[in-house]
Specification:
Length: about 300
Amino acid sequence: MNRLKRFTRLARRPLHSSRIVLGYYLDNKVNRNSSAVWLTSPKLLQLAMAINRHGQPAGSTSYRKFIVLTSPRSGSNLLCSSLDQHDQLVCKGELFGEDGPHIGVSPRNFNSNWLAVFRELDAERFLEYFHHKPYPPTIQAVGFKVFPRHLTHKGFRPVISSLLHDPATQVIVLQRPNYLERYLSLKKARESRQWAHWLHEGKAGSSRQTQAVELSVKELNREFIKLAQEDRVIAGLVSGRPFLPLSYDDLCTDFETQLGRVQEYLGVPTQAVPVRTRKQSNGSLAENIANYAELKQHFHSSPWGRFFT
């Protein structure tokens, strides 16, 4: 029986989850055409190692490992970019993001189609090379962020779950309790195609007032249920294990104190770092939602009424 070989088809267009097709092909029947590149796992490993520029093989692996467990639009860019600036910390982005692995935290993010293919082929080895690799001895803790949806990928779930179930892994749970704020931020990010507003080094910035959007009752009902489910998944993942709870609201109103709590939890000296991101928009919910009064009246007596302040 001919040995089956796992293959990857990588389209030349920008990376998208639907552009990566995984399957099995016989060694002597791999089809090559002008619109795709076919590579086997060993070649991908060599490519991934060759293009990685975020650390060298020599160093120490005695650092602590941590995960920022959170949901989109909950302040993870603010937290992770701040942690990554600490002299003794490394905090990567979404290693298991749908649009490819985010090796760094923007604006110095590092993403690659080849790394995405490598991750699809062997998630465990990908994590071993890009998370468990040696770092300079001064680095005391290394982590990355995880969203609940990352665990829906059957190839990623065992790897992430193994880390979460390891008692040695430190877990920071960052949550934004107001679902209306979370969804409004998500909707505006989708419309603007800007998922974070980064401040240049040494330059101050402020949030800008964006145009008010109109939301439907049906839309909010659907999203509130979805966000509640995300929070239940997070609660289940940390059930029975120690973790550090962190609130988005507290992080925004008392940044230095909350960042100090996280640094202390990770066992590193407290170090002040500049804020690298700014909020997507300013103003109240009423100012950013055109039909806010109508929605507030509708949801007044529902479980979601508490989100309309």
